[in-house]
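notes to self, project folder thing:

trying the whole complex as one job this time. last attempt i did each chain seperately and stitching them together was a nightmare. two parts in total, labels are on each line so i dont mix them up again. if this works i'll redo the older ones the same way
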Amino acid sequence: MEGRCAVETWAKFGNVPSTAKVTGGTLVFICDGSDEVNIFHIEEKRIMTTLQFPGPICYLVQSEDKHLIYAACESAVYCVNIHILKSRIPTGSAPAPSLSISSDWLAVREERVCSLLLVGSILLTLTQKGGLWQFTLYKVPASVESSASGHEKLGVLELPVVSPGLYEDGDQRRTPARKPVLNCVHSSDAVPTSSSSSSSPSSPSHTLTGDGHFLLEPLLFRMIFGVDAALAKSPIILCGLPDGRLCFFPLRGLPSRVRVLHSLEQPIVFIGSTVAMGTDPPLPQSLVAVGGLGRVVLIHTGGTAATGTTAALASGAGQKPLAFTEGCVPGPVVCGCVEGRRLYYSTHSDVLVLDLSGGPEQQGATALRGGEDVGDGLPSPVSLNVCGVVALGRATHTAAAAGAVQFLALSARGRLQSITVPKAAAAAAAGGGEEAQGRELPSLPSSQVGQRIKDLLSAIGDVCERATVLKASIHSKTEVLRQLNQVLHISSLLLSDHNKEDHLPVQKRPIRCQTLSQWSRVLQRDTLNLTCVLQNTSPYVLEQGWTFCVTLQPLSHPLGEAGEGSSRTLSFPILDLRPGGEFEVSLPLATAGDTSFPVTVRCSLVFMLARLLAEEKPAAPPAGGHPDPSLPGLGGGCFSLPVDTLTVDWLDALRVCKPGDGNKDGGFPPTEGASVDPLQAFLDVREVVGRGRSGDTGGALRSKAGGGHSACVRVCQQSLSAALEWAAAGAAPRGSEGAPSLSSAVLDWLLPSSGPGGGGTSTRAVDDAVVSARCPGGRPVRLTAKEVTVGEQGVETGGGGLKTVEIWVECPSMASVCGLHHAVLGRVQTLLQRAPENRASAGGIQSAVLRQAIQKAEAVLQRIQESRVPEGSGGDFTREKMNQSLLSIYHELRDNPLLIV
Amino acid sequence: MADLESQRSLSGLWVLGNNQLVDEWKRQGVQLFSRDPDPSRLKQRSADFHKLLLKIQGVPPAPDRSQLELVVRFNACVFSVAQAQTERAQALLTEGLHRVLTPSALGVAGGTCGGTTGDPSSEAPSLWGPALRAVADGPLAVGTLRLLCLQWAVWLSSNRLTHIQELRGELSSLSDRLSALEEEEERKRSLSASDHEPPRLVADPLRLTELLDVCTVVARGAEWLSDGRPSDALSELQRAFSLPAPRDVLAQAHVLSGRCLADTGRPQMALLCFMRAMETEPHCVSALYHSTEVYRQLGNVTALVEGLRLLNTALRLPPPAAPSMTAEVSPLSAPLLLGSPALGSLLSAPPAPSVQRRLALSCVLHGRVAEGVELYLDLLADLQSDPQHAVPPGSVQAPPPVQASPRGAELYLEAAAALLLAGRGPDCWALCDEVLSATLDLLPQRLTLGDPSEDQDRDQDRDQDPLDVVLWAGSAHLLQAHCQAALEDWKQAVTCYTRCINLTGKVCFKTHGPPPPPPSGDLSGRPGAGLRSLQTLKGLSLAGRGVCFTQRDQLREALGDLQLSALVSPGGVGAGLWLGEVLWRLDRRREAASCWERSLAAESPAETLPLYLQEPRSSPSLDPRVLRSRVQSLTQT
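result (full assembly):
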């Protein structure tokens, strides 16, 4: 087959460890790591002889003229003259005779030489001694005839060993400790003269001199190794150390030291140089070093060479810089060789070809092929399907097949093979065209097809798995973003509502809260339940993560609870509140007997970012009714947006008696249950008796003969009706059936739960309406609204008497009266404030005076509150003092009747 | 009874083994020491003694065997020290000490040489006092003292002079006590008239003590000298001359004394010391080198050149054969013991190429141009040939001592300048061509330099400093232009000068301050030296072009160039004179006169510049006398 590379086995030895070396031309010297060196004659294709050395051979080099081989054994370096050996081999003997090398051949006595190099008449040995790599130079005597003595030591260069554990830690079992690689570079304008004759004439533009050293373009040579080395025409000794350093020193010239050129960070396996084949002018060459784990570095002049991770060593601006192109090929690389612009390397399981050409047209080709690059700047290698190669000899072009490349290889099973790579396969590596991939590449052997398919399938599986994970992650992120978007919209809505000076009316807000308080009876106890309804009329959804928080804060504390935190916060997680939906929560506000009114109800929406971002482990939502401790702090990624602030006052807490209820106690609803204790009842009676004597009809707050106290609020009828938008004044005759009077409207407004349907107004007189109810303490309360004309108040009015509405609060309990009075005042105030200011015509001065009066009354109320506070704290204030205070207020109120206009 | 007999015979066997090893070593030693000491033999011997020591330690103790053990330990330790394995030797010694201190432990099986706990070297000085007291004058005393002797050697070779100082008392009396004990032992042995052969030692402790004593003195002297206490060092070194010492150590002591004297400002006495060193040891290269340094300071050119020539010859010779061995071969030698870095840097001489270059430079600068040229050419030939003792073993890892070795390109340019001086223009041209061919395609398009003071942390041995490349290429152009000017080919010379000017123009300075100061001081190895060289190069090339223009009667151009040159690199004598000449010809005589007066009064700073950046002597010059007469005529009128 045309595209296949041919492998021909020439000889077989024993098993070969992974450190072996093949060297030579016609005579090939094979060193398999034992103490034997086999000499193989290529043309005769037979093993000529075997040299038996005194110890295992670590390294083998051959002299330029092929007469000498140097072998590094454990404790010495031997030098063997082939001519003399040849004379000792009997010609034509079929079994290869073995020659033992005695210590007569000992050249240099040096221990543990890792690597050898022969440059001209200089022998270089590399040893590791203590913490140093030692390069020792020896002069090879002019004539090595019988004994190899007379190698004169010329000098030693040293380089400290860096982190010897670098390459020994992880992979020592898999790959044995590498030996340093030594090679020699000449500038191509300073080629040693003696090498020209011996180099193979079949390679048109070889980069190698006769002894395996390689050449570099002068410019690149000077850029890498310096002007001095170029001037001295010195060969450069390049050394790739197992720690990955690529270091060099000039052989000639002034005394120098070993300098580090680059570090591959993995054991260097091969150093060579590339050249573009057969082009005129020649394309730039590059220095290539290959690491044991597959990293390849190309050192070339920048600008024209391949791109990639090019670390430019710009010597100055403008000049073509020295560039290092690094890339990775699938490793591990066992051995390699370069032929022309191609790197052949063995991974033990395969031999691959990598095209290293860095010419501009190749770059274009790479760009056209697209996506085929391995690593950064390198194309993908092409397999030759030759397995188990542990050592590669030098590649040559064969004369037989034009363009074909032949090289010797030693397999792990001890076969000496000749691998001939046809031009097509090599071209496939270089061009990598689609048709070449399909047609000319050798197909896989059937045994490997199954394995390959399995590998591919598992790779697809892996990719699919990773893709799923990524997709899920993207989805969740999108979801979070969407939610955040909603959250932002809602937040801006709420905040803009809040920040506006003129609040929108509650009904017009997109997100609002309404409350309703209701008495209910649970477990033999009466409870005032507050029902909050969160209405969402905005176009946005309140999703999981939002929490509806209701903070209850009594204005004053009931007795005995002053020391504790007076406010309660209850939070309710919202699951999903769609536009137009409602979220209703119900919470106990007070029990019967609890008189801590009014209560401020602050509704807010809290959003917790943490829950949004860590959705996989949702925090336990705070149980409804229990205050969530994390909320007030707003730390931990939650923020709170106020929705509404409402007040639950005495009026809301009243239990309105239905008309059908028993009315035995002067129209008051009966005390329900046994919640009122007898002592209290007794006191109540006493109070009633006591107050009854001091009854006065003229005051705003008085005790009625029927029992308890009463208070009155007078409101100007006109303004009240305007504020209530009570249109009955003109449309329907007052007091006519069917249309409620203003007084009943006022009561309806005050007590919506006693509305017309509820029949809260037990009595519908012409001018007044009465509602009986029970206050939270259980006392009966009567609210009466009357329309009265006031004229005798000494206030100058425009048209005689002023029509007013009197709202009477009557209750045996002083506290209840005060509270209800406050609540009614508060509501009237809010109502009038909110009403349109169209009553200026009624008389500005008068209204001003009246407002002043209201303020006085408020001050009085404030004093009432104050008088309650120290009592609650249990201080020294006696009840008597409080009573006095209240009495003074009472007097004051009586002296200053109130009229609200 | 039979058991005792067998043990006695066993110890006899070991004594025999020990003596055999010692004999074998001495026999080989005589042969081997004629060449390199053979590390593998040393190693083999060391292993043998260690093995024997382990054997002896494995048997329960007996008094005579303890002595034998100490002898074998001594022998093993000597080889460890000889292989520079100080840790191993120290471990052996510490172990021995422990065994001496706890007699019951003698004979306990096991105990490899590394078996001691803790850092053996740190606890060693404190251990010795109790150990020596414990043995007192007992049977183990002599063996322990021998070990102390080795301990001294270990400390000395690992440069632990403080430890030696701590045990000063014991060490100073060591020799006397040892000799007394040895005598007594000898007497006892003769009295007992036993036919048992005593275990032999591989080195004589008494001679070792003598060597150690003098080596310690020298090492201490070197330490103090490098610490900047030359007078203390001198008085210490004086002691060395009264001690018995090998010649090389004595020579080193002389050299060090000379260094001390030179440091304290007594150059003539220093020269005397160096001379004594050379009398003591003819191959004492460092004495030669340091005497040339003193001659250089004294300004004695003839002696300097002569000294450099001698030094060059000495360095080019193959290293001297090892000193002839006496019958007694000790594996411990003075160089092994004197391993301190201070001593190494004090006694080192620069490598041969560096010396030869200095010699050549001195020759050229001091009127022996032809000789200098030959030396330069030899040097260049050496550069291109394979190293022939160019790298003396072991000297590469130590940085060249006094100043950085010259770069190859600089050598080429210096040689070219020398050739130009010698009137060999074409050769100079060819050398410059080589430099240009190596540098031209490495030239940067543009080079921006920062403040030289900021560049101080720049890596000194960067091999490709772009400024260097510019300097080399520019200098090559300059030299070629000088060649053309010498041939009076003014047009070509202008071309070459212009190339050089254009090159220097590629470098711009980032500094905002004034331009760098004019070149002064030693130029080598200092940051900013390159910058000053560049300024000089610019000034010289502008001046050269100006001269060429003058010769071609293009006086306007000449005036511009010469004025620029004076601006860029003030202090150029030739440029100043020629500027005056141009002004004179332009009929601006007053200016010309003041210009000449300034220039004639100025001194040439050329000594510190590289050879190729000095003012050309080959270019056309003006006769100062004519100029003076012109000035006088002008002032009289």
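what i see at first glance: The longest strand of chain A covers residues 511-522.
need to look closer tmrw
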